[in-house]
Amino acid sequence: MSTPTPFQELGSTLGLSTALLKSLSRLSYVYALPIQTASLSVILDEGRDVVLNSRTGTGKTVAYMLPVLEKILRTQNKPGESADSGTSTKCIILLPTTDLADQTASVLKSLTYYCSDIVTSCKLDRSNSPQTRSLLLDGATVVIGTPGTFVHFKSDLNLTSCETVVVDEADLMLSHGYGDDLKVITKSMVPSITQGVMVTATMGGDVGKLKKFMLNKPAVIKVKDDRKAGTLKQFYLTVPSADKGLVLYVFLKLGVVKQPCIVFCNDVETCYRVKLLLEQFGMRAGVVNGNMPGNVRRKVVEKFNDDGGVLVVTDLEDGEGEKEEEEEDEGDSDEEGVEEGKKEGKGKEEGSGEDDEEDEDGEDEPALTATEKSTSATGFALGRGVDFKRVQFVINYDLPPTSDSYTHRVGRTARAGKSGVALTLVSKGSADDDRLLSKIQETQPPLPMQRALDDLTTAQEFAPQPAPLSFDLKEIEGFRYRVDDVKRAVTKVRVVETMKRELKDAMLSSDRLRSHFEENPADLQMLQHDKNRSEGRVQTHLKHVPGYLLPKGMQVAKQEKRKRRRGGGGGKEGRNKGNDPLQSYGEEEGGTEEKKAKISEKNRVFLDTSDDVGKSTSGRNKWKMKRGKGKWSKKYDPTKDRGKK
Ligand SMILES: Nc1ncnc2c1ncn2[C@@H]1O[C@H](COP(=O)(O)OP(=O)(O)OP(=O)(O)O)[C@@H](O)[C@H]1O
Known about the structure:
- GO terms for molecular function: ATP binding; hydrolase activity; RNA binding; RNA helicase activity.
- One of its GO terms (cellular component) is cytosol.
- It comes from Triparma columacea.
- Residues 41-221 form the Helicase ATP-binding domain.
- This protein has 25 helices and 23 strands.
- The strands form 6 sheets. The chain has an 8-stranded mixed sheet with strand order 5-6-4-7-8-3-9-14, with helices on both faces. The chain has a 7-stranded parallel sheet with strand order 12-13-11-17-18-10-21, sandwiched between helices.
- The protein is globular.
- It binds adenosine-5'-triphosphate.
- Adenosine-5'-triphosphate (ATP) is lined by residues 29, 31-33, 36, 56-62, 201, 385, 387, 411, 415-416.
- Residues 29, 31-33, 36, 56-62, 201, 385, 387, 411, 415-416 line the site of adenosine-5'-triphosphate.
């Protein structure tokens, strides 16, 4: 891994404006992330078309925005700029969803904090046309929106001096149905793009099509995945579908899964089932999905970013979750750094007619239609691009439909060089899941593991990721009756009621409906009354986990913890110093029960360390059962155990 370069150093080498450097330091961004270092000089000085490609969460937004803003600041300060060019738009940024456009607009606001008088911005908002039009009339320097909104506000935009067109999350544009809008933008709104920038975490077939259509001899800036350094660890656990709720609840309850945590499901109903299950056990969970109004979705995400906890998300529309055969990558080089483009002229690759099809105008150009069958056009793509904050854990409750969507989902954690863990629950006996898992493993970087050869040496080995989590479901068998009981209470009717309640909440807190309620108080009363009636019941007694239900290793840990709190034993040595939240407990041979317990506490096995990974305690349980020890002893009194809580 290359040494990070401080922005101050880059600033003096490349001549970055003080205003931008001050904004970066206000955001506490001291070092440029690799894609940012790589992109700056190419976008800024070479001025050529660019494809930015690095994995999710590596800072691509700042990577294109910084040089684009610097370019604008330089030209705005140039003497002799015409008055018109001073009030017309210099750069447009296209995103596939309004949520992402909002997020990008807020990054832009932060970066222009000290130069907002020179660089003004506008996020195109169809629901607030008068304000959008007034900002455009004032001559917003940078305009952000979906391709659809650009076409909608076509006659209000002054793009005669537009120099840069950025297409962010380019891999989603066509599957969101923006092919035709992109044609309008590039043909009639900005017919001669001076510099095109395409940004993507995955290089699927759609990116290739767009690249051919919009860019001219682009430099492909591709920063190699540095996950071998171990920032994102990925595991999978094969479980019967019916046991997924059990695993999720127990892992969350026992702190095996750390929060903030995102749980991805493949449909809205499963999201609510998971939420209700967790809530019955006293665990709050938010839900976001495409059926929600955008402002409600944004509020839930904001709350999650502020408070953490569990967020249950579906990034698919219902019926979209069927696993698909995937398109092969178009084969861009894996090399780090700048790779030269191989094309001549915009819109057409020389000597290759592969993707070229006659469009409806009869012109010879690539068809801008999606390769993927999925059509998430509801204006959300929660598995992609959304910058959820400080997420420690991503759980794929359901396997996503493609390996690309897996990459985006797990990319919600381990962002900006931080660490994180992704756990995927694979349905036992599902051939689809098995096939997709192999496909995912082919695309993810392997997991480095240390294997002890003797006392002094170790060898590094690599396991495919996601790696199997060796966890014996028998360890949590004791929880089954609670979960099954609660699951029975999570009926379809309750799921629907919860959805309705959330919709009512949204209506009650809607700014737009406020005046309606003022004029029609009866409507407000009715909504409030219905809301109170459908309030869910939480079983408070289920909040606590009795000690006898804990896996054996954890019971020991609890006792040790209690001892330490009382000032006896344990000490630093016994403390869990590892930072990998997925952990398991080793099986010990020989020695007294007490000694074994201590060894077990000390030798907790962390999933990143060795091939001891995830040893189960069930062997010990068998040993005890055979010898009539512990809860299999004739003297065992479970009521005492319960009292120990
Ligand atoms: N130089 C930096 N130092 C520290 N944090 C940074 C830096 N640049 C960006 N970040 C943070 O990194 C996170 C990820 O950035 P960003 O959303 O731009 O990534 P991305 O590569 O576009 O991800 P995705 O592909 O998922 O859209 C953000 O929370 C951002 O605030």
